[in-house]
Amino acid sequence: MAGYIFRRLLQALPVLVGTTFLIYFMVFAMPGDPLLALFGDKTPNPAVLERLREQYHLDQPFIVQYFLYLGGILRGDFGTSFSGEPVTDILARTFPVTIRLALMALFIEFVLGVLIGLISGLRKGKLFDASALVISLILISLPIFVIAFVAQFIFGIQLGWARTTVSAGAPIQDLILPAFVLASITFAQIVRLTRSSVIETQSLDFVRTAYGKGLSRRRIIPVHILRNSLIPVVTYAATDFGVLLVGATVTEGIFNVPGVGRTLYQAIIRGEGPTVVSFVTVMVLIYLVVNLVVDLLYGLLDPRIRYVK
């Protein structure tokens, strides 16, 4: 097990370096001068502009800028935003909010998606199954901003069950409605994936053998059917966590959530290379760790999986 984890960590290094390099290159290649945006319509003093270029290493070639940034990451220094605030402070302020929102959305979509998908798979062709497929198809077809505005209008304005915008500090109760909206992105996919996996697992020999031995459905469904059907669902949920982190940009903008998505969008508009690359670097690290944890969970879901040399 330890050797497997060590090999996975080694494999993650080129992914991390390659991702930061590509993102830094794309930010570097953006047209325009990001420093000029700081002054708005005013004409900056050439001496001040030159001093800012030197401070942010914008007077250096691309490859020099990248290696300076990479060296800073190894020292735990993610650089400074154009507003003068350390990027680590921005990360510390925004990432907990987005991670909390993404975890809530992941919990909602996984629990409801697996439950509805399981019932739909067990009742294939029945009314519940048809209704679940229709609802999932509608959710897949609707853009996230449409779902967000409809949820705001119905649950926030008409019924008054939730706040239409998130207050300062992003308390849990204010994140419930944005979490449901964010979960709707892939909730339908988990329902359909669980349903198809349950239908396929029911036809396997070991399930028929369990029925032949006289085991009750209460034993067969959770232990034999659901457990083996969860492997593709867990894989999808792991990759979906990264999608939720990045895909929260629209949801955070509509509900005024002070998280990563809105901050990252603003940094891209301003051309703040260190801020954009730092945010993406942390997202990639979280994504790699989550995928490693999911790979280790496979051994619990399927006893046939063992991590050997």
TrEMBL record:
<comment type="similarity">
    <text>Belongs to the binding-protein-dependent transport system permease family.</text>
</comment>
<keyword id="KW-0472">Membrane</keyword>
<feature type="transmembrane region" description="Helical">
    <location>
        <begin position="175"/>
        <end position="194"/>
    </location>
</feature>
<dbReference type="Pfam" id="PF19300">
    <property type="entry name" value="BPD_transp_1_N"/>
</dbReference>
<feature type="transmembrane region" description="Helical">
    <location>
        <begin position="275"/>
        <end position="301"/>
    </location>
</feature>
<dbReference type="InterPro" id="IPR000515">
    <property type="entry name" value="MetI-like"/>
</dbReference>
<dbReference type="GO" id="GO:0005886">
    <property type="term" value="C:plasma membrane"/>
</dbReference>
<feature type="domain" description="ABC transmembrane type-1">
    <location>
        <begin position="95"/>
        <end position="298"/>
    </location>
</feature>
<feature type="transmembrane region" description="Helical">
    <location>
        <begin position="12"/>
        <end position="30"/>
    </location>
</feature>
<keyword id="KW-1133">Transmembrane helix</keyword>
<feature type="transmembrane region" description="Helical">
    <location>
        <begin position="101"/>
        <end position="120"/>
    </location>
</feature>
<keyword id="KW-0813">Transport</keyword>
<dbReference type="GO" id="GO:0055085">
    <property type="term" value="P:transmembrane transport"/>
</dbReference>
<feature type="transmembrane region" description="Helical">
    <location>
        <begin position="233"/>
        <end position="255"/>
    </location>
</feature>
<dbReference type="Pfam" id="PF00528">
    <property type="entry name" value="BPD_transp_1"/>
</dbReference>
<dbReference type="InterPro" id="IPR035906">
    <property type="entry name" value="MetI-like_sf"/>
</dbReference>
<feature type="transmembrane region" description="Helical">
    <location>
        <begin position="132"/>
        <end position="155"/>
    </location>
</feature>
<protein>
    <submittedName>
        <fullName>ABC transporter permease</fullName>
    </submittedName>
</protein>
<keyword id="KW-0812">Transmembrane</keyword>
<keyword id="KW-1003">Cell membrane</keyword>
<dbReference type="InterPro" id="IPR045621">
    <property type="entry name" value="BPD_transp_1_N"/>
</dbReference>
